[in-house]
């Protein structure tokens, strides 16, 4: 079985711009091959040096580079044939060979000459890399092309007249292979009327990177590893207008809205993409301090944290911001429509802010998160009830608990207890025992998705009120709920 030939682009110079695939191949290679001049130094090898260890190294030394010779192309053809034969010996022996190439292997890269001599005999894979053209544009902070512009990549070795004609006939250009061709390239840019637009980038992405107006560069200082860039004309023409438009929008934006966002039970990976997008677009975040603390900080965004007992005031504050043109995210834990801020915002908006747009972005509820930890205790009909008697009387809580218990549904109990509400859990347990068997499974989920997560299953008769606080959610099983193993509860979808 033969080895595989890999042509691996290692990028323009900065090792951190190598792809993950390139790093993996270099680290695991049996044979590393690279091109160099007679001085023996290789830019490609220097980029990957930190990943080299016990690999066999094949140095492929060009017989000629820029010097004159009677048969330049013939000398190179013979060199590539001999280099391909050297690598074929490794491949025939079953060793994988990684040929590293600065930039991209198929973008003016020497690897291509080995590929066309070996690809019909051995399995090959080409790993693309960041090109010097992309790195140069990044160094300049200028787009290469925009909208339907055409980018032309030109070798500086073209005759000056042809180079000038192509430069005059394109929207944007990158001129490669400068060095000794620089004087001709600059003359062609002048002839084409593009010299004033042209930029010079040397050793892009490295610590020796240099950028300048191409017209101001000393020809004697130009190395081979440099690029001439004539960037997007559309970008240059539209930048002042775009900046003015942006400033006008910032100064006079009037189309605000309130988005009520569910943050989920706690873990970042339970935040939905829609919720992430709403947070990213927000100018202001409004919410209970515990929940606003879960929103990643952004210097562009203002955070307005408040106490948990001012829901209507918080809603009105958010709606006032939106009426003034702000994009506001009102955040709630879990799902905002489950004992959370959606109801307060919609109610206040309906009464006093009919002109303000309000959206609700759902989230994973605490009941769903706790249920998932033990299986499917909410697999059939179920009810959600809050034990808090701050916004409704305890008589109402009792009637609803009794009705649901008599209907034989599983129950997700929110807000079971707090520092000021210490007796409700015991009262609820005793009421439910009038309708449920003492062995009914109860899921006690505390701080689910948080650093102090605890999920236990106990019998209804053994539910300890002292172990329940505001960060706890209880799931009371129905008569059909099953507890087949420790930590597993489900309620079948069939009933009776």
From TrEMBL:
Transmembrane segments: none annotated. Signal peptide: none annotated. GO terms for molecular function: precorrin-2 C20-methyltransferase activity. It comes from the Bacteria. Belongs to the precorrin methyltransferase family. PANTHER family: COBALT-FACTOR III C(17)-METHYLTRANSFERASE-RELATED. This is Precorrin-2 C(20)-methyltransferase. It comes from Actinomycetospora flava.
